[in-house]
Amino acid sequence: MSNKNLALAFLLMGMVANFQGHCNDLPRFSEPIPNVTVPVGRDIEFPCIVENLGNYRAAWLKIESKAILSIHQNLITRNYRISLSHSDNKNFVLHLKNVQKSDVGSYMCQLNTVPMMSQVGHLDVLFPPEISLKSSIADELVREGSNVTFSCLAKGYPTPKVTWRREDNRPILIQTSDGTTQYMDTYEGEHLGLVSINREHSGAYLCIAVNGVPPSVSKRLMLYVEYSPAITVPNGYLGAELKTTAVLTCLVDSFPSPRIYWVKGNGTGLNSGRKYDIKVSPAEEKKIEGILRIHNLQKMDLGVYKCLAKNLVGIAVAEIYLYELQPKTTTTKATTSEYFSLIVTAPEGGRNNISDDDDDSTAIATKLGTLEDSSIGEYYPLYEDASNIQKEANTRINSHGQSSVSNGWRGSQLGSPMYFFILSFLLTTTSEVIT
């Protein structure tokens, strides 16, 4: 039977009840039907309590769809989640299990009196946030300097609040309406606009939708920023001894990953083999390390080397100057002056890195003598303390009775031959100490 026929039959039953003499003793509702608000999936009930119902009938209807759910003690709807309980011709309770979005609306308990009597209770169903995948933009790949807008459209009841943050908790770099840039920990709104993208923008962004109904939901969106390589050289001036292996390195920051090439100063490209060993290894995020090993270093291998990095956006070049580092054993010369100045042979170029202990300029001059300047930036001199050499020489002279103070007569007696003997002894002794 259709809803229209059911409604007509229900009305006729009321007219019959009135005709039977109950018009002066009409029924009444003993309490109002409550409004109910619950999260989706819960069970709810609407009570309809009627006093003095007599021969009248109570029915449940859903107003929006005009569907008759029950008449008196009979359940009409075929919705398996809806049921009816009744007792004493007074209590008529409508039960809804596992409420869904489709259950939202107004529910009427109606009596077939003339005129009709009714009460209404409203059902609100709370829905947790849901991010629409069709309306939310996917991952983005953009070139540095471009603009991009991420959209994250969420629905639910109540209306969700959408918040953006970076997955690594770094601040979001946003350009404000006045053209200035501003770092923000979070940003609220369905649309996140990023202007003049640079490499700092790249990474994962989280769109989080919250409306107070658990669970909150999030979507992860990736922003990939293409940019030209940037090269960092840990040591632009590198010294190495001949016949050893020199190791040159360069660190490249780039996306997408670049190809790395090594070139000798005259433009000759280098390849891995017996002389050269070229490798690439991952370093920090989006960075790789280029390594060039030069085996059995010779004079001809010294000079400028170039690290080249190239990707589809651009190319970058950095130079490393490889110079000869002298062995750490150095020959010095001594004189017969009052103190002994030591001449140190430094590798070509560079300024000496003097120890922090050598604060006294006189001591430094005593130790080093003369130094050679150049543009390389650092070298490693070797020196000995001249004061120790002088002290030991004087001790040996005194032990042989050659002091001019206590044994001056011997000098006058021995004359020139003894003078040359002493000078010869001093030079020999000093040379032994230095060597």
Automatic annotation (TrEMBL):
Keyword Membrane carried by entry: no
Source superkingdom: Eukaryota
Residue intervals of the Ig-like domain: 27-112, 129-218, 229-311
SUPFAM superfamilies: Immunoglobulin (SSF48726)
Signal peptide start and end residues: 1-21
InterPro entries linked to this entry: Ig-like_dom, Ig-like_dom_sf, Ig-like_fold, Ig_sub, Ig_sub2, Ig_V-set, Neural/epithelial_adhesion
Keyword Glycoprotein: no
Keywords: Disulfide bond, Immunoglobulin domain, Repeat, Signal
Listed name of the protein: Lachesin-like
Species of origin: Limulus polyphemus (Atlantic horseshoe crab)
